[in-house]
Fold this protein.
Amino acid sequence: MAGERHELERAPTFHELFDRTHKRKGTDDYVSESARTIIETYDRTMADRYAEGTPQLDLDPEA
């Protein structure tokens, strides 16, 4: 995890961590349809919860 922080110069967001652990290496493909559904639902919920221009949390556990 420390390498991740150094690479990004900040702590990774939930979405970045999710993609890193749920996508096939070297591709943009999720390992399963349920993984794709989870992140799409999370992104949609975050977009609905935080209006454009409103700062988003890196992780919203309620989303």
